[in-house]
Amino acid sequence: MEREQILKTLSHVGALITGSHVVYTSERHGTDYVDKDRVGTDPIVLSMVAAAVASEVKSLGVEMVVSPALGAITLGENVAYHLSALTGISVKFVIAEKEAIAIPDPEGLGRKCFYHSGNFSLRPNDPSFIKDKCVLEMEDILTTGASAKRVVELIRRYNPAKTHVAALVNRGKVSLADVGTPDSFFSLISLDLPSYTEAECANRGPCAARIPINTLVGKGKDFLARKSARA
Predict the structure, then answer these.
(1) What is the C-alpha separation between 108 and 128, in angstroms, rounded?
(2) What's this model's pTM, rounded to 2 decimal places?
(3) One domain for residues 15 and 92
(4) pLDDT, tens digit (0-9, with 9 covering 90-100), for 104-120
(5) pLDDT in the model for residue 166
(6) Quick check: is 38 in a domain?
């Protein structure tokens, strides 16, 4: 798929948002957003973009695809399927899920409470899935690369033959080093989407333009809740 065709496809399913006021996971503000959840709502579109990724990385000899939960799971599964069809290799798929650590109920109500440590673990947690294999970590949207880097570090604990990283969209000028310096790094498309700190936003971003914060995507709802609590 050509770049313009990919962008048109993302726009068609409502995954490419422009001219809004979005708060990203990094807490920076911007006007544009790629809604990865929208990509998965259309199985045909999901399969199309997964096939495009698979076509680009088919020469790597990938034997295992790993995707972080939750957003990239269906994308990773589809990429593994298309790689199997293209290469004749039975490409397997596993999930990297965030570790949840049990903590006491902060309100003393006897509930089971957890927090995410920021680290990942494999599911199923079987070293044989990774050891001596050529592994592709499949991401959907990259903003800083920090999460992808943690997954790469997890994969390396299991002694793979090679580790590669691919993404549907690189929206933060993420580099090879940002994702942990794998053997290769590829994104289907790269988008230069400017972002601002809260202070910068007030001076020259969507805050200055008085564009209402979008609470349907990103972290806008959480940002407004925190701001209200501080008031």
Answers:
(1) 42
(2) 0.82
(3) no
(4) 888 888 888 877 777 88
(5) 97
(6) no
